[in-house]
Give the backbone structure.
Amino acid sequence: MRQEVGLGDATAITAVTIQWPGSGAAQVVRGVRMGQFYRVREGDPVAHPWRVPHFRLPARPAPGTMPMMPGMTMR
């Protein structure tokens, strides 16, 4: 499950505490940096850096040029 956490005005992360829903175990992970993605597995004390795949959405056509259904257009 992907989780995004807002840090407000924080300038650094000391530790992340995870409460695992299945087992109820609490796990503390240290050494994570702001603005990064990590993969964390229950019981593994290391947060592994994770490269999130990037993709581009196609250019959006000008309004009124893309038919939604036969006989309909956006305006």
In short: The beta strands are 15-19, 26-30, 38-39, 48-49. The mean pLDDT is 83.
